[in-house]
Amino acid sequence: MSRYHTIRIHHRQVNQEYSLQVPEDHYILHSAEDQGYELPFSCRNGACTSCAVRIISGELDQPEAVGLSPELKEKGYALLCVSYAKSDLEVETQDEDEVYELQFGRYFGKGKVKLGFPLDDD
Ligand code: FES
Fold first, then answer.
1. Considering the domain boundaries, does residue 119 fall inside one?
2. What is the value of pTM for the model shown?
3. What is the mean pLDDT of residues 67-96?
4. Is residue 30 part of a domain?
5. In total, how many domains does the chain have?
6. Could you tell me the pLDDT band of residue 88, with boundaries at 50, 70 and 90?
7. CATH number for the domain that contains residue 33
8. What is the residue-wise DSSP string for 62-110?
9. What is the mean pLDDT of the chain?
């Protein structure tokens, strides 16, 4: 028998507040979707950060969240597609690309990276 926790999700992009019960042994994103809630996602395997949230309170476990740096996990970010609830939780969705930019923006934003490749001369 799974233990259940209550999670409150503030989906900031659509200004909606969801409150639902999720089992401890299922990914939170999947449980929310099973119950008809639509949340941001893309890769669904902890790599892209589309599903990132800020944890306001509570605890979760995200051992497969390879797309999130230890630093950002420490700051309270989580990837819902690979997170398990460990207590009642309150989270809010990130600003668009917030986590991606926190992790990579300073590298990609810095140098003069030019898109495009040399064209063949013929
Ligand atoms: S959907 Fe890509 S990390 Fe969660």
1. no
2. 0.85
3. 96
4. yes
5. 1
6. very high
7. 3.10.20.30
8. -TT-TTS-HHHHHTTEEEGGG-EESS-EEEEEPSTTHHHIIIIIHHHTT
9. 89
SS3 content of the chain, % helix, strand, coil (to 5): 20, 30, 50
How high is the pLDDT of residue 62? 98
Question: 62 is in which domain, residue-wise?
Answer: 4-97
Using CA atoms, how far apart are residues 14 and 26, in angstroms rounded to an integer? Answer: 25
User: For a pocket test of ligand 1, which of 30, 31, 33, 44 has the largest count of ligand atoms closer than 8 A to its C-beta?
Assistant: 44
| Residue 87 included in any domain | yes
The reply to whether ligand 1 has any atom less than 6 angstroms from the CB of 53 is no
Q: What was the pLDDT predicted at 113?
A: 46
Atom of ligand 1 nearest to the CA of 42: 1
Quote the radius of gyration of the chain (alpha carbons, Å).
17
Supply 118's token pair.
Answer: 């040399």
**How far is 17 from 15, CA to CA, in rounded Å?**
7
Say which range, 28-32, 47-51, 103-107, has the weakest mean pLDDT. 103-107
- Rounded mean pLDDT of 63-79? 95
Kindly state whether residue 91 falls inside one of the protein's structural domains: yes
